Amino acid sequence: MIINYFNCWKLKKWQSNLLHTLLWLIYPAKIQKGDKIRCYGISYPQWKGDKFECTANFKDKTIGIRNAIRVAKKDFRKLGK
Question: The domain spanning residue 54 has which CATH number?
Answer without folding.
Answer: 2.30.30.140
